[in-house]
Amino acid sequence: MRLLKPLVFGLVAMGFVASCTPTNTGPATGSARKAEIGQSEQLVAELRRRKLLNQDARLKRYVDSVGRRIAKQRPKGAPRIRAFVINDPGVNAFTTGGGYVFFNAGLLAVLENEAQFAMVFAHELAHVDRGHVTEGARNRSNVGLGATALAIGAAVAGVPADLAQAVVGVGAQAAVAGFTREQETDADRIGFQYLSGAGYNAAAGAKSFRVLRDLYGDRGGFLATHPQSSERQKLIQGLARRNDAKSGRVGRDDYLRATNNLRRQAIKFYETNDRPREARQAKRNLRRLR
d(Cα 119, Cα 20) in Å, to the nearest integer? Predict the structure, then answer.
């Protein structure tokens, strides 16, 4: 597997974000859903053309199995989940709507167990199911997704990294202009419902935000409108206490085994590119594997 330099994808580190504005209209239907799927397929095609999609069949089966657990908790009529792992060491995940969810290799490398991964997965699907992506697409005329595809092409074509990141930065400003703390918190709350309903230990899942805070600080690179990682962890852990969701599946060993090959590749990248925090976190997971 070839890990590329971080492309950022119009987002910020481990954003668990979609291009969206505050609304709870439900998942896209009709022409809006077709548009989301069409645009998402364009992005998948570009990723595939640039050979950026991870081809590990075992990893794909594992990611899909987590998606199936969560899918049972989603509302009737929610779009089918299509999940992809991108060979990028950035610690990030995002959705482009229509049920499409993307996870960077770096995210899988630094998370510690399946409950944490499922928390991220559930959060992204909540963005889709609450109508955040649909409303955001109307407001920004899809410029964020277009900038993402452009940035991928620029980075892989050998354009200097600062230029590629500048391209993404322009898209990021447009894509996240409508983000609010309330909208992100809404996705966290709905994500918790999916997580706990699927039988996961939600208190363990909340520690995904602790990983983010340890790597990047409490703000984690977010815009000022985003909740701090500590706030998000506290919210989910509080919901877990009140809803008796402190037990259930954690899936540490299953997760670490499924992601171990990818993690080794990520560690090599981090060490070569002087990123000690990510390297230490990923190595810690290697040591914990039984």
Answer: 19
In the chain, the amino acid numbered 228 is Q
Residues 64-83 as b or e (16 or more Cβ within 10 Å = b): eebbebbbebbeeeebebbb
Q: What dihedral do alpha carbons 50, 9, 108, 213 form, nearest 10°?
A: 160
Residue ranges with strand state E in 171-247:
none
For the beta carbon of residue 274, count every other beta carbon within 10 angstroms. 7
What residue has token string 């955001």?
Answer: 136
Q: Which two tokens stand for residue 265?
A: 């590749």
Task: Residue count of the chain, please give it.
Answer: 290
Q: What is the pTM of this model?
A: 0.82
Residue type, 265: Q
Distance of alpha carbon 181 from alpha carbon 102, whole angstroms: 22
The pair of structure tokens assigned to 119 is 């928390």
CA angle 45, 51, 56 (to 5 degrees): 105
**289 vs 287: CA distance, rounded Å:** 6
Long-range contacts from 276-281, C-beta under 8 angstroms, 24+ separation:
277/214, 277/215, 277/216, 278/89, 278/91, 278/106, 278/109, 278/110, 278/215, 281/109, 281/110, 281/211, 281/214, 281/215
* pLDDT tens sequence across 231-272: 889 989 999 899 988 999 999 999 999 999 999 999 999 999
Residue-wise pLDDT for 158-201, tens only, equals 333 333 343 333 333 334 334 467 777 888 999 999 999 999 99
Residue 249 dihedral angles phi and psi, to the nearest 5°: -70, 130
Number of H helices, E strands in the chain: 13, 4
Strand partners for 85: 103
- Going by C-alpha positions, the residue among 108, 142, 176 that lies closest to residue 40 is 142
d(CA 238, CA 244): 10
